Amino acid sequence: MKGIILAGGSGTRLHPITLAMSKQLLPVYDKPMIYYPLSVLLLADIREVLIISTPEDLPHFEKLLGDGKNLGCQFSYAEQAVPNGLAQAFVIGEQFIGDDSVALILGDNIFYGSGFGQLIREHIDPDGAVVFASQVHDPERYGVVEFDAKRNVLSIEEKPVKPKSNFAVPGLYFYDNQVIQIAKEVEPSARGEYEITSVNNEYLKRKQLKVGLFNRGIAWLDTGTFASLNEASTFVRVIEERQGTKIGCIEEVAYYRNFIERDQVLALADRYGKSGYGDYLKKIVTPVIPA
Fold it and tell me: How many CA within 13 A on the CB side of residue 275?
């Protein structure tokens, strides 16, 4: 499976900060926002990743992440000149995807919790499509998924007045190779965008749409507003300071998924100077000898 991070858009809800830089480059506590969705793809054992962003912002992502070789990965980049909707990612990424299945994750979504890695790895070879579902107290604000006992999706509704469940669909989607052709045939919505909901509804018509259910220990946060960005930073800070571990540390995930070796982690640690991030990387590869 290959992975796509959609990190475009103008971030208007975060103006004036995003007038000068991409939202996905803003800090969420101690890391650029894009580290978090990238770590999710690495956690799913996805090594080939396409980052899609605006022509203005793409060089900054390339400077930050490079070609991915230092993480045992391969990163590619593509432009989305106009934010015309999520489904366009599969058309832009057609050559990158090739004959493979593909995961799409939004660049402003953060996931954390027990069992999350196992859950997403269970769905890396989908026969059709997989959306994920997270229980929320205000489902009317989101896309809402209704499903049966076998995790077959019965309906997906965007911001319904009367939700059929309290499970929202976060910005993480797994598809087989049919998604390229399906995305090409999507018609623009009333707001002129190629909606991911249209792709999911086509899989639903084909009875090929499943749901991966988040347990109560998995947290999903987005960062689309000043308040949610601040909340996400606070969440990450509290967990990291309390547990002494990091969320969204791409080097750590690459090491634990055996993409890179100990010596490579130590070389990466030197990149971060006195930030403390490098010290953390050195710690994770240094054996603890019991007293």
Answer: 13
